Amino acid sequence: LFLLTTFWMARYHIYNPFNVDLAAYLSVTLCLIMMLDNKNILFIIIFTLALFIKETTIILFPVFFSFQLKNSKFKSALIITLKWALPPVILYLIFRFFSFNSYFGDIASSFKFYLKTRGILGFLKIFTIGFLNIWGIILLVIIVGFPAVIKKIKELPWALVLFISSLFLPFLDAGVET
């Protein structure tokens, strides 16, 4: 809420009303509040809306699972997550799969575009640069602080779900380079 009410954030969204980020931030914040209060019906409604506002809000799925895992055993956390957080994801994926702008077609189009315009070496160069841009600092932290990372994982095993799922977040972008 602090981020949403800062002057520059509010001003940015006033001058860019078609930007969906503010709605995504708000829906993620509301989902987290509903999750903490165990208001699962409101969570599922807001999470569904959040997915249709911006696809990267799917990160709430592993967040929900991690929260459940932190508070209960694995089997119970998995059942609760499948019951409350999976239906919005399935609904969203069905919509994306059958929509005119299919998410899976977008990924294939991006690969074809880069291979066609830049060749295999150009594609590998862009992929490597993109990989390092996305995960470079995280990889550096893991390599340099490996003992501390392992220690933290042992202390907070549920946080591993969040870390691993965050690595896959860039693949959720549905945009196509043209």
Detail the poorly predicted runs. 174-178
Specify the structural class.
Answer: mainly alpha
Distance between the termini: 36 Å
Average the pLDDT over all residues and give the rounded result: 80
- The strand count comes to 0
Strand and helix order: HHHHHHHHHH
Query: What does the oligomeric state look like here?
Result: single chain
Report the sheet with the most strands, covering strand number, pairing sense and barrel closure.
Answer: none
Globular, elongated, flat, extended or rod-shaped: what is the shape?
globular
Strand content: under 5%
Count of individual helical segments: 10
Task: State Rg.
Answer: 19 Å
Binned, the helix content reads: over 70%
